[in-house]
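Morning. Coffee machine broken again, so started the prediction first thing and wrote up yesterday's gels while waiting. Chain of 520 residues, entered below exactly as on the submission form.
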Amino acid sequence: MKRYVLLFALFCCISSLVEIKATAQQGDRLIINKDTLQLLDCPIEYDTLLGSKVRQRLLKKSLSTGCWRRYVATWRILDNKLYLEAIQEYPKENNNNDVSLEGIFDAYKDEQGRILASWVSGKTYAASGKRLRYWNMDFYRNYEYETRYDIQKGVVVDEQHYQNYIKKSSLGEENPFYKDAFYKVIMSNFNGDLFPALANKNLKVDLSIRPNTDGQIDSLKILDWVLDGKKIKPFAANHPYAKELKRCLALVPDWKVSFIRGKIENIEASIDLWSKKGCRSITRNEENNDSIYINQKYYALRAFPLQYDTRLYARLLRFLPVNGLRNYTAIWELANERLYLKSIRLWNDPKPFPLEKIFPKARPGEPIEASWYDGETLCTQGETLNYSTEYYPTEILCTFNKGRLTSQTAYQNYVIPINEQSFQHRKDLLQSLDWTLDPGFVGKRIYATCTAYPNRDGKAEKLEIEISVSGFGKNYLNYKITDPDNPYIKACRKTLEHVIWSVQYKRGQVLPTHESFFVW
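Came back before lunch.
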């Protein structure tokens, strides 16, 4: 354990020399004439010693994840030179948050007493206007107007102005999940059942698309084909898999165009084209469920049997819009130990869709036996009891072989939650322990995480405790205690051995429950 703590301490010391920005960072300010721009950079940190000296002068010791350096600087470009004018602590809590520059930057003052940033060399960007896109990391974001400054020892040797724009795909107007919409268009249309060799295979493709200004494909490059997790020799352009992929790509009406810093960016995508037979019949959270009648009772069906055979599904796709959504729901019935398709309704039509359009031999009004379907379906009633593990008050698990029922198991699930008073009570119990006996806890934050394995009455038959210790500033050292013989682990376990825990009863067994408490 000591070895790992020492290694972690060494890592923290090294990390203190370089800014670690796991979240988006507040930029500095840059004044150009009468305009104040956001500087997507922090030039003081080009010299880590200067950055360290500034932080030593800060009054507040609290951290903001949105500004790990804990200050914002104001700069000015004048006569093609970059000057530092001021530093303020961040976040600003009062009017007196200016940081004195004296004694830190004296060596960089010119004859007029201005601080010339001669330690700065590199490219930096200033931005204004509407924010176009954003990643929650460092300075990775783009704005409507941006200027790149090439700086050498504090002197601006070149600058380039950009007017950026992002033109959304029409898919975004119909599909709130546009980020995944074109993936779904391709995946839902890729007809893997045309290729018997893919029956038990996973096929994935990595590609790069360069759209033109109209959102149409200007160039397409297949980066890799991956079969069952292994890269394989590229398929020829006329290979059936490649032709089917290009057919699906052509269905996307238009692609998003990101014109950033003078060029249209490529769209790079990794698409799971096929994940073994029946992969299209698996439900996703944002999609509307089918429904099924069992013994004249209504259930939500957590599967899409019509999509099990993509050759059959392709017949329906001809009548659906191309937007990455399902655009239909189906009603099924389990009768005489057989699965039947009763009706289909399209997204924009209240009337039942004529089944004979996809089943040529069907008689109007008669259900269709789902003889193409093999697999396991979950039929549910009620709202989900737990979103992380997703189970429901009433469940019937059915297995089918060529549409015939081969097994059926019913479950009655439930949750007995604890109230806020019970949670606060166990938190008070843990906080009542004397956490000052260990000198290593001084100046640290301590959390206790409890994993209880209760019976159906809520009494813990087994209890696991993990203690997390974290510091900040000079005490920045994080570690966990899991040794069951540790005195604090024993004390926590004994303190909580008689409390009642929440009960999550799922499919014949009680699930473990996890709770975390701030104790010191």
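Helices lie at 2-15, 48-56, 171-174, 178-189, 240-251, 310-317, 420-431, 487-496. Going to sketch it on the whiteboard this afternoon.
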